[in-house]
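Standup, Tuesday
Yesterday: got the pipeline producing structure tokens again.
Today: sanity-check two examples.
Blockers: none.

Example 1:
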Amino acid sequence: MFSVRRSQTASSQAPGRPDYSGLSALFINTTLKPSSQHSHTSALMDVPAQVMQSAGVAVSHIRAADHDIAPGVQPDMHEAGFPGDAWPELWPKVKAADILVIGTPIWLGMKSSICQRVIERLYAQSGQLNDKGQSVYYGRTGGVIVTGNEDGAKACAREVLYALSHLGYTVPPQADAAWLGEVGPGPSYGDEGSDGPGLEFTQKNAVFMAWNLMHVSWMLKQAGGLPSYGNDRRAWEEGARFDHPEPERIRA
């Protein structure tokens, strides 16, 4: 039976609060700014990151703009002729994380170009399988943070969460949080007067997202991931059709 370890170490928290010390989370910020510049996306990502840390989760961060991530859908784009590609060095951190949160700003109503590149490079690893013959991303959870001062938060979140789900991540309920300022030029999330850090709707969603990612990730870990019946690629390639009603019609 599923059980969660409970912690009562923080006096400000209610008794019975879960302790998820066995989990790890990776936050990838796809802002267009390097770490030498302030990122409003990073400021909002810090909310769920700190919630997770308070629950014992080992949290790490990547600012994608700091790295020379080549475009493409191969695991190592050096092999495709690119002189530089940092993705092979970043991949082990992605693979090790039970929880992945991607943060993106909005530009022209869309996620950032760096966000799209990160998703493409995640796709590059989708051919890798775990020991059950499933996508290497099975058994992990994914979420998204979006910031900007124009419309498009739900569209960006939808695109990122669909991509993560398609690759094999499990997307829990309410796995996104966003902040939008005034339409057009105006204050960003962390600017003075924006009240981004004080907006209840955004902060509630960020907290709910953090806990739902942890809850589902912990359940998956306790269950040993998803059952392999019906999604084992190796078995499918060997002829298994997992109760398909007309297996004889399927062409290899």
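Example 2:
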Amino acid sequence: MARTFFSVFSGIILALALAFVTPASAVVPPLKQPTWAELSPQQREILAPLSSEWDKLESFRRKKWVGIAQRYPAMSAEEQQRLQLRMKTWVSLSPEERKQAREQYKALRKVPLEQRQTVNQKWQEYKNLPDAEKERLKQVATTRKTQPKSGASRVAPTPPPVAPATPPAAAASAEPATAPAPAVAPSPQ
């Protein structure tokens, strides 16, 4: 029994020692994602809106887009059109706008399912509006963004001065107060 335990224990120690001794070159480096020139003609056609920025993208983003390009042929024509439009829109955004869009997406993913469904429903209602109504709503939103909020420009009124409180013992022994003199003298008649 002791011999079996010793042989198992020494086997574990030996395996651990070999794990720590293996050279760093034995570690597999992360796979480098293809440059634009290395993409297949079909991938380049699908990802064409990203061509100007492809070689600047981080490896994990390229991997994501290559995966999307693989799924692209199985998408409906409407989904393909929407994807092409979104890629064009994405490329037109500034780095700050992209960062903001990513943060909004992450925030939306944290919202409870019911609220996400409500947002999706409102979005669908908006998409079904006539173009003239969409334009009117955009103008209203733009106007709201440029104008200060209604209370923002007002100065908050200062509260009236509060008279110092009299301690209860002093209040009981204090003489009755007389009526204060009017601030403005009555006008002669």
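Quick observation on example 2: Residues 111-145 form one domain. Residues 43 and 105 are 26 Å apart (CA to CA).
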